[in-house]
Amino acid sequence: MTLLLAAVIVAITLGVTFWASKRNTSASDFYVAGARSAPPRTALPSPATT
Q1: Phi, psi (rounded to 5 degrees) for 22
Q2: d(CA 41, CA 25)
Q3: CB 3.0–4.6 Å: which of 16, 25, 29, 50 could bond 34 by disulfide?
Q4: Cβ atoms of residues 30 and 36 within 8 Å
Q5: What's the Rg (C-alpha) of the chain?
Q6: What separation in angstroms does the CA of 9 have from each of 2, 4, 15, 16, 20?
Q7: Statement: residue 49 has pLDDT above 90
Q8: Residue pair 23/29 in contact by the 8 Å Cβ criterion
Q9: Which of 45, 49, 15 is nearest to 33 (CA)?
Q10: Which helix (H) or strand (E) holds 2?
Q11: pLDDT at 12
Q12: What's residue 29's pLDDT?
């Protein structure tokens, strides 16, 4: 059961990574998400960096 859950998490992570790699076409897409992200979504990770 634990191995299955780990495999599902890895598969989801790889799927999201593949999907995101197809959407990014330039360095600005990579660094600032192409300026498409809403401010609340970009502010969520900020406490993790302090």
Answers
A1: -75, -25
A2: 21
A3: 29
A4: no
A5: 15
A6: 11, 9, 10, 11, 16
A7: no
A8: yes
A9: 45
A10: helix 2-23
A11: 95
A12: 66
Cβ distance 5 to 11 under 8 Å?
Answer: no
List of residues 6+ apart from 26 with CB closer than 8 A: 34
What tokens appear for 22 in the block? 């197809």
This prediction's pTM: 0.51
Look-up: residue for tokens 């660094």?
31
The pair of three-digit structure tokens given for residue 19, joined into one six-digit string: 């999907």
Q: Is the pLDDT of residue 38 over 60?
A: no
Judge whether 30 and 24 are in contact, CB under 8 Å: yes
User: What's the pLDDT tens digit per position in 5-37?
Assistant: 999 999 999 998 888 778 777 776 667 655 665
- For residue 24 the two structure tokens come to 């990014």
